[in-house]
Amino acid sequence: MLIKPNARLHGTQLAGWKPTSVAGARYEDILLDADAGIPMPDGTVLRADVYRPKTADKVPALIAWAPYYKDMQNARVADEGGVVTYVASRGYAHVRIQNRGTGKSGGTHPPMFSPQEVDDVICAIEWTAAQPWCDGSVGMIGASYLAMIQYFAAARKPPALKAIFPFLASTDLYRDATKEGSAFNEFDTLIIFPMSSRLGMGPPALRHLLSHVLDSSLSSRLVYDHAALSAVGRFCGAHYRPDEISCREYVDFMFDNIYDGPDYALRSAWSVLPDIDIPVLIATNYTAIGFHYRGAFEAWHRLDTEKKLFIGPTAKVYIPWTEYQEELIAWYDYQLKGIDNGYGELPAVRYWLNGAGAWRSAADWPVPGAQKRRFYLAGRSDDALDKHALLPEAPAGETELSFLAIPRHMVYIKEIERYETQVLTYASEPFEEDTEVVGPVKLRLLLSSNAMDTHVMVRVSDAAPFGRPRHLSWGWLRAAFRRVDEKRSTPSEIIHDCTAPQALEPGEPVVLEFTCTPVANLFRRGHRLMLEIGARPDVLAPEREDEIAFFNWNAPPYPARNRIYHGGEEPSYIELDIL
Questions:
Q1: What pLDDT, in 10s, does the model give residues 168-178?
Q2: What residue ranges define each of the domains in the chain, with the CATH number in brackets?
Q3: Dist CA 475 CA 493 (whole Å)
Q4: Which ranges of 185-239 does DSSP label H, i.e. alpha helix?
Q5: Residues 6+ apart with CB under 8 A from 235
């Protein structure tokens, strides 16, 4: 089918640079091979939509692999495989494949990221490279699920796969998806239906028409509306009817495998990252803090291959993925077409400096030369409702403050909030000069609870003299999973052993060490560092103005009174990297 490219792009397109050269002229005419069949060794046939330029020349191919409706890909509704007609117009075949047992693809849907799924991806890469329109070079494209699967494919080392560009890719299925901070994440309910659905959106002509009518504004508003996301999750859980295999996979995640272990490791990219030997462009943005963000830093530390990393600003547009399409083309022009466009000379790390509104670069992450600075928690009074202090030195005396841990959805008397708090707030003195804080954020809290387990949620912000604080970073941990896994931890993140809980002794203080999401922020002179500590993720969630995608999870597990201790031999503090 011959179609006219609809290549509207939204959002940031290049991460702080411009290519010095580009591939030849754009292709005006695009061909679509709808529902192309890809045979698997067992006789199962997967279905793909192949968008490619109308040319006699062979072109590289970019594979977008996911269980989500491929029919939505060019309707600009909800897919994360990039702008297919823009990619094709720049001289690439865009191959959007629906994986086994979903959409129009045959077979039974395997567990996500299982060896069976990766086997299928490798077969699809080989099939793509062998097509008469392909020059034998293959890359991969897409965000979220479509990015996560790229690591598994690259680790198998298929000869045709030359480079990958995982944008917003989680690397730990336990910590980043099903059990945020070892608490159940609502995201599972949101994804289980589309993963198992065989619905479609009608013939290609209808999809192409929709692509000229629809845009991303509705999707973007939904992503930033946490109440709406929760409502969608509740609706899916109550009304959608996935098949038995998908339901059993959901039960396995949510009820049977409640702790981390070998099954999660098998289906988490962190376990295969050291096996990758092709070039990787790792990319994330601050919008992904609630889900995919941390995976970029784990990938950076675990990959031992040619690699680059960029961390972009929050995204005005998230679904469908229309950001960084020019960056993607420049990366693959360099890696697959051999075009000397300046990509090889780019610094290893590029990041958006919030507060300055500008790109910065570094030779590594964390940024070399950064100095660690601690701010110690201190009480200004005995009233937990007051705003308390962050001091450059540990306070001489020992004090404590308490907050209530109220489980989400618990019915309670709201009047108590006049006298008690769910959130403790601390703030530093105003910065005396502009200060760049770039890197990991570490918390060390001395905490006790009158329950056998509790949840801690923290939010770090830039507080100007006037106006709302600008929220920068979040961290979370269930206290029963406080044991640090030294072997898996990285310079950017403290990773905890979530294989077995350690119950709290009511009233007995314990040390909690954990990291918040990495930051890059310019604190202007007169601004303050603000730290909020509570128990409920929804209470300290990002606000709509933050433009951050965030899925609530069910925490804390029990009603409790939690106490934070200041000073003494085990002072509580927050540690930042200062440039």
A1: 999 998 888 77
A2: 2-346 (3.40.50.1820), 371-578 (2.60.120.260)
A3: 10
A4: 187-196, 204-213, 217-224, 226-239
A5: none
